[in-house]
């Protein structure tokens, strides 16, 4: 892992707690090296994402600060339901904000109950503790009503940074899609106010095309993971690509993902696999895995199996389904955006049989031997949905393992034992 540039001046100008942040910076390289650089035969294209992580709190934050100096505004988001297209259409920049490290949890617990999802606690802790530059840079944070815990967290965070909340319907009837189209239109007005840039039909359509291209590029990488004979990239590396996609410039992300897909397609043609023939193929489903949450992928892929698909927000949910590029008027584009985003099958919806159907179909498409359904502790929605999903998988003849965990390493050995037994059971 390359030595990162000294970014202390950048962080100081953002009002960060430098001493505490230095502690985080001191452990991240070791964690990344243990998980990523210990892998063999990695695609050369992963060098880009390695570079980003080597200076994860420097390269992109510096780009964002430079853009702000030119008058552009940065929107921080937590969820795949917030349409990047709208902010980008007004020359705004979107960056992901979810916290994926135990490092931020104690600060979050100063404001939130201990028995709350670690992602929510870490996200608030990263902002209030002043130890993540992305949280300090955002001119406005865009929340969404996907779960009760996040809604209450947003109330606390709103006292510290400007916040816009998008109301997400929790059913998928035609009137709900129309309602969300109106919410997108309201978000458009908010973006105009924040950026001072008029939202035009032409610019919105251009942004729709731009983000669709990113989706296509990421989907190309995942398509190579469907190959039943060659596994050209580890799930651990694919996860890193997806995590960085939430932060990176969309056009650059598209370019780098397409370049990686080119390499992976050639690997398949040449029979170059990162796992031995016969390695058991695993699909991960459940709660998202925000950077730097690499724990489960590392355990699975050092226990004799390969992760070939992630059905979660840091996986297929992020790029599946394109926005219809046909409409060119506001009403048509808002409707097209709403229809695409409302197809995301999050556990916050009721009923949510579509997610169960999607997981089973993905298991078939990716030729998996088993599914691991993972849940962050205290995530009520996904935990409640788990029994129905697992029964459907079992009825379909697909072995499934249920895992509940958090960001700590306290359960790492227990998980390794359970995962190892599951893989052995797969034969």
Chart the SSEs and their pairings.
Elements: H1 8-13, H2 18-37, H3 47-54, H4 59-69, E1 74-77, H5 84-89, E2 93-96, H6 105-108, H7 118-128, H8 133-137, E3 140-144, H9 148-157, E4 163-166, H10 174-195, H11 201-224, H12 235-245, H13 250-270, E5 280-286, H14 295-301, E6 305-311, H15 316-319, H16 330-341, H17 353-365, E7 370-376, H18 380-395, E8 400-405, H19 412-425
Parallel strand pairs: 1-2, 1-3, 3-4, 5-6, 5-7, 7-8
Helix pairs in contact: 7-9, 10-16, 11-13, 14-19, 17-18
Explain what this protein looks like in three dimensions.
The chain has one domain (8-272, 281-425). The chain contains 19 helices and eight strands. It has helices at residues 8-13, 18-37, 47-54, 59-69, 84-89, 105-108, 118-128, 133-137, 148-157, 174-195, 201-224, 235-245, 250-270, 295-301, 316-319, 330-341, 353-365, 380-395, 412-425; strands spanning 74-77, 93-96, 140-144, 163-166, 280-286, 305-311, 370-376, 400-405. The two termini are 36 Å apart.
């Amino acid at each position: 892992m390359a030595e990162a540039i000294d970014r202390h001046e950048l962080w100081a100008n953002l009002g960060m707690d430098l001493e505490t942040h230095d502690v985080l910076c001191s452990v991240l390289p070791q964690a990344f090296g243990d998980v990523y650089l210990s892998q063999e035969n990695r695609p050369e294209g992963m060098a880009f994402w390695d570079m980003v992580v080597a200076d994860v709190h420097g390269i992109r934050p510096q780009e964002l600060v430079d853009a702000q100096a030119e008058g552009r505004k940065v929107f921080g988001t937590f969820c795949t339901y917030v349409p990047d297209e709208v902010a980008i259409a007004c020359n705004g920049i979107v960056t992901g904000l979810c916290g994926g490290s135990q490092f931020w949890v104690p600060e979050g617990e100063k404001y939130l109950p201990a028995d709350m999802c670690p992602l929510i606690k870490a996200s608030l802790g990263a902002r209030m503790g002043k130890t993540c530059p992305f949280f300090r840079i955002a001119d406005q944070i865009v929340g969404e009503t996907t779960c009760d815990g996040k809604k209450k967290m947003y109330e606390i965070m709103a006292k510290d940074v400007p916040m816009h909340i998008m109301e997400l319907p929790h059913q998928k009837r035609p009137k709900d899609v129309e309602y969300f189209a109106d919410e997108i239109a309201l978000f458009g007005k908010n973006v105009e106010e924040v950026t001072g840039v008029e939202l035009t039909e032409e610019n919105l359509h251009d942004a729709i095309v731009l983000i669709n291209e990113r989706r296509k590029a990421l989907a190309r990488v995942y398509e190579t993971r469907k190959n039943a004979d060659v596994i050209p990239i580890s799930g651990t590396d694919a996860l890193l690509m997806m995590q960085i996609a939430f932060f990176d410039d969309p056009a650059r992300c598209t370019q780098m993902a397409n370049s990686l897909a080119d390499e992976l397609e050639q690997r398949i043609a040449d029979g170059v696999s990162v796992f031995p023939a016969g390695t058991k193929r695993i699909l991960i489903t459940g709660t998202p895995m925000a950077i730097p949450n690499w724990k489960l992928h590392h355990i699975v892929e050092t226990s004799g199996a390969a992760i070939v698909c992630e059905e979660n927000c840091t996986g297929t949910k992020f790029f599946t389904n394109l926005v219809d590029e046909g409409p060119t008027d506001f009403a048509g584009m808002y409707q097209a955006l709403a229809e695409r985003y409302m197809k995301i099958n999050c556990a916050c919806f009721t009923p949510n049989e579509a997610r169960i159907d999607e997981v089973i179909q993905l298991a078939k498409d990716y030729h998996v031997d088993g599914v691991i359904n993972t849940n962050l502790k205290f995530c009520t929605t996904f935990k409640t949905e788990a029994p129905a999903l697992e029964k459907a998988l079992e009825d379909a003849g697909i072995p499934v393992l249920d895992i509940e965990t958090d960001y700590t390493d306290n359960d790492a050995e227990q998980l390794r034992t359970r995962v190892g037994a599951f893989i052995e059971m797969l034969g």
